[in-house]
């Protein structure tokens, strides 16, 4: 493996919870007893099947059979060191949003965020993280954002792409207001609470179908955020799509614009074409790079995406999307790499910008 030492900001890295036992020290006495007595565990199955081939690259799996992503030493050896990563954002996928009990959900969200801070952020200065929230209850979700926002190492709020309702719904606006108030982008990561079918035609049979059609979920969420007026209401809110792919985006923007021209009377607050709003407020991570088969075609897609600001570097560690250190797909323009590796992330995440002299850090 060559060592390119890209020196980038990796916006999608997945630490994995080894099991509920890891969270017990971060739960209060009541919830520790409840979780233990009821044998609650394995919520990660709701997000991404750990045994799936794509869940862990072969050379990123440990010899002792540990679940990929459960070891800081592995993360350092597999990604941070060989890629020369200056900063990596930890996005811990766990099935908290799928729980029916909102009080258990907030207890686990708190524990998970505290576990990330103590077991990962405190042990490597290169690491940052997403705040995990219980979207079941916006009031509790805001409380968790407020509780963790004072720690500048938490740089965004993360939710799943297939949750219980479209993300633009007014019920959720207090969460987006809290994120905007604290300079925290809203990250939407591929994943489902499994409360609704993962396709608009009903339940599919295979993980392959779930994964490919996730692009539809991202499209629905973007349309919801635009149509319900979230960006009109929160002009400083940024949304980051994680593990969404990006080559579907240009055709979606064309379709959204065309339909908006005919239907705009019902959404007068959408006062400019949806593509303009999305290009101003939405960023997308690089991996999985669903690039065209001909490398020469990639430049056309990037051009159609509509701006050098759109893409953020990611490896999606430990998921398997590329070999070696070739995180950039073939044909990716060399001139754009610096922006994607570092500059775009700094522009997207206020908490990743270098602190100016005299400026508060939190
Ligand atoms: Zn991911």
- Contiguous runs where pLDDT drops below 50 for at least 5 residues: none
Tell me the count of domains: 1
Q: How many H/I helical runs?
A: 11
End-to-end span in angstroms? 39 Å
How many strands in all? 8
SSE order, one letter for each helix or strand: EHHEHEHEHEHHEHHEHEH
At the first level of CATH, the class is Alpha Beta
Would you mind describing this structure in some detail?
The mean pLDDT is 93. The protein is an alpha/beta fold and 362 residues long. Helix 3 packs parallel to helix 4. It has an eight-stranded parallel sheet with strand order 1-2-3-4-5-6-7-8. Helix content is 36%, strand content 11%. The chain has one domain (7-348): Metal-dependent hydrolases (TIM Barrel, Alpha-Beta Barrel). The structure holds zinc ion. The site of zinc ion (ZN) has 6 residues, from loops.
Topology:
Blueprint: E1 9-13, H1 29-38, H2 72-80, E2 87-90, H3 102-119, E3 127-132, H4 138-148, E4 154-162, H5 173-181, E5 186-192, H6 207-227, H7 230-233, E6 239-242, H8 249-263, H9 274-281, E7 282-285, H10 295-305, E8 311-312, H11 334-348
Parallel strand pairs: 1-2, 2-3, 3-4, 4-5, 5-6, 6-7, 7-8
This protein binds zinc ion (ZN).
């Amino acid at each position: 493996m060559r060592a390119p030492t890209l020196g980038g900001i990796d916006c999608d890295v997945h630490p994995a919870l080894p099991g509920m036992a890891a969270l017990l020290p971060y739960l209060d006495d009541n919830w520790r007893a409840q979780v233990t007595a009821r044998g609650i565990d394995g919520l990660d199955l709701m997000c991404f099947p750990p045994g799936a081939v794509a869940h862990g690259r072969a050379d990123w799996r440990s010899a002792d059979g540990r679940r990929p992503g459960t070891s800081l030493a592995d993360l350092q050896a597999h990604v941070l060191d060989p890629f020369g990563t200056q900063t990596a954002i930890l996005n811990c996928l766990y099935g908290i949003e799928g729980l029916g009990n909102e009080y258990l959900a907030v207890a686990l969200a708190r524990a998970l965020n505290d576990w990330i801070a103590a077991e990962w952020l405190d042990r490597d200065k290169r690491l940052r993280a997403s705040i995990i929230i219980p979207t079941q209850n916006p009031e509790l979700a805001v409380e968790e954002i407020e509780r963790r926002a004072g720690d500048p190492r938490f740089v965004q709020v993360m939710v799943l792409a297939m949750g219980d309702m479209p993300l633009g719904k007014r019920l959720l606006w207090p969460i987006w207001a809290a994120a905007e108030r604290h300079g925290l982008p809203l990250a939407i990561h591929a994943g489902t609470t499994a409360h609704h079918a993962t396709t608009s035609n009903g339940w599919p049979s295979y993980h392959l179908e779930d994964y490919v059609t996730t692009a539809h979920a991202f499209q629905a969420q973007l349309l919801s955020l635009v149509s319900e007026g979230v960006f009109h209401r929160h002009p400083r809110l940024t949304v980051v799509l994680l593990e969404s792919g990006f080559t579907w985006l240009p055709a979606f923007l064309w379709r959204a614009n065309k339909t908006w021209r005919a239907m705009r009377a019902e959404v007068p607050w959408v006062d400019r074409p949806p593509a303009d709003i999305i290009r101003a407020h939405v960023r997308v991570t690089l991996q999985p790079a669903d690039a065209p088969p001909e490398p020469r075609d990639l430049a056309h897609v990037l051009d159609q995406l509509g701006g050098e600001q759109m893409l953020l570097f990611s490896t999606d560690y430990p998921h398997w999307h590329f070999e070696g250190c070739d995180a950039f797909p073939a044909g990716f323009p060399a001139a754009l790499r610096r922006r994607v590796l570092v500059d775009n992330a700094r522009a997207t995440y206020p908490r990743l910008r270098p602190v100016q002299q005299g400026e508060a850090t939190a």
